Amino acid sequence: VQLQASGGGLVQSGGSLRLSCAASGFTFSNYAMDWFRQAPGKEREFVAAISWNSASTHYADSVKGRFTISRDNAKNTVYLQMNSLKLEDTADYYCAAARLYRTYDKPQFFDYWGQGTQVTVSS
Length: 123
What we know:
Helix content: under 10%
Largest sheet: 7 strands, mixed
Oligomer: single chain
Number of helices: 0
């Protein structure tokens, strides 16, 4: 099983980035997918979730209206489009997979995790 996150980098405040997470080794279309993030010295926090068929999505209040999660089951890939980035969005971003969607904001219920991609927002 592998979740390979990419797309992070350095961006100015107000800018945009698109993260990708390519999955392999499991049946991607059977899993809900999430993005979490962890800033230095802070706990990992939920960012966005998408159900297996894209019918449901949820976002943390801090990113609602700025971030969009999407997936392409044919490509076994989940995306996070991040617009209007703020300094406080600086963190390592992780994709994760879970069989159940209803616990979408609880990291302890996730089966697989990617290695993280770093996002740094500068002023």
